[in-house]
Design brief:
about 375 residues, alpha/beta, 7-stranded mixed beta sheet, 3-stranded antiparallel beta sheet, 12 helices, 12 strands, globular
């Protein structure tokens, strides 16, 4: 007997980044040494104070159900951290989620339905498109590639893309996959368009603590954006807590109420003892974040120099830990060949709406990054 699947789930493909990572894992299981530059996972251990806090929380019995929207201590700590960035959210405006991806999923489900128009800025993180399609929305896209992935030079194109029919705009700065940090002028342009057309904006700021020489501005601090911005963030990247699954959204009360219903009927809550560890991450781990950020900066600069030595001009972002490297026109074929021939795992740019590029993560050791580039050169991929 065949199984009839819903149309909504058949609208999407599996995550391209996880698909490449899974292939790398399969090859490694067969004994192949893969330089895996495909996933955005810091190679640093989770800072010890966070680990210790989780152990103590377990010992203290924090292993039962947590309040669906998050334990009060963590919601308050998140609200305080947002205040430090100039944002005005109370603890009641926070939902703690099992990962930033869940926060985004809940917001999209709460705001997007059949026929809703959503605008993305390409290159865009792979799961935005899938989330919108699952919810039944339609997509319009603005290509930032001709502008070295910056938004400010593309504001006219954004203005001609959004309209009174636009329900949601997703802005990711610092950007995954480009590393671009959008200027204040770019964010003011977003503010002007959002207020003119009454558009809700998701500000995905997952990499806000991983920047190099610049201070990213939170979109919700712009005048007129407080009641139309949903700020999404998490602990995976800055605190090297990818497997802990801890994120959050901060939003106006009405949206918190609607998204909170989704959370209560789906994942219930983020893990109780992990939330206690999250409080310590926010309160005690600034030095550990700086140490990781400084290491990423050195790796970024080294990688840019290695590509320059090969005559490859790569736009160097001011945030996150990714590079978009120009490759063959068929980037899917290039990436498949790179992992098969050079045993280097990367992600096709087309997965982010930017064909002709491959995304490399430099959240890997200096030695592995050097080896990855050497293998690509030796096998004719650079």
């Amino acid at each position: 007997m065949g199984i009839d699947f819903t149309e909504r789930v058949q609208r999407v493909e599996p995550s391209a980044t996880l698909a490449i990572s899974n292939l790398a894992s399969e090859l490694e299981a067969d004994g192949t040494d893969i330089v895996d530059l495909s996933v955005g996972e810091p190679d640093f251990p989770t800072p010890e104070p966070i680990v210790q806090a989780a152990k103590e929380a377990i010992d203290a019995g924090h292993t039962g159900y947590a309040p669906s929207n998050g334990i009060p201590a963590l919601r308050s700590a998140i609200a305080d951290s947002l205040t430090d960035r100039g944002l005005s959210y109370a603890a009641e405006n926070i939902i703690v989620t099992p990962g930033g991806k869940q926060a985004l999923f809940e917001v999209v489900q709460a705001l997007v339905e059949d026929g809703s128009e959503v605008v993305l800025l390409d290159p865009a993180w792979v799961s935005y498109e899938a989330m919108v399609k699952i919810a039944g929305g339609s997509l319009k896209r603005v290509d930032l590639t001709p502008h070295d992935f910056q938004l400010e030079p593309a504001l006219d194109e954004l203005a001609s893309t959004v309209s009174e029919n636009t329900d949601l705009l997703i802005v990711n700065s610092p950007s995954n996959p480009s590393g671009a940090v959008f200027s204040d002028a770019a964010l003011r342009g977003v503010r002007d368009l959002a207020t003119e057309h009454d558009i809700t904006v998701i500000a995905d700021e997952m990499y806000d603590q991983i920047t190099y020489g610049v201070e990213p501005t939170s979109l919700g601090t712009m005048a007129g954006m407080g009641d139309r911005t949903v700020t999404v963030n998490g602990f995976s990247k800055a605190y090297s807590m990818t497997g802990w699954r801890l994120g959050y959204l901060a939003a106006p009360s009405e949206l918190v109420g609607q998204a909170g219903k989704l959370q209560s009927h789906s994942v219930s809550s983020a893990t109780n003892f992990v939330q206690h560890a999250g409080v310590v991450a926010l309160d005690e781990c600034d030095d550990a974040v700086k140490e990781m950020r400084d290491a990423f900066a050195r790796r970024r600069d080294m990688l840019a120099d290695l590509f320059a030595d090969q005559g490859v001009d790569v736009p160097v972002g001011d945030g996150a830990f990714y590079m978009m490297v120009p490759v063959a026109e068929d980037d899917q074929q290039w990436c498949e060949g790179a992992i098969s021939d050079a045993h280097v795992a990367t992600v096709p740019g087309s997965a982010f709406g930017t064909p002709g590029y491959a995304r490399l993560s430099y959240a890997a050791s200096t030695e592995r990054l050097k080896e990855g580039v050497e293998r690509l050169v030796e096998n004719g991929y650079l």
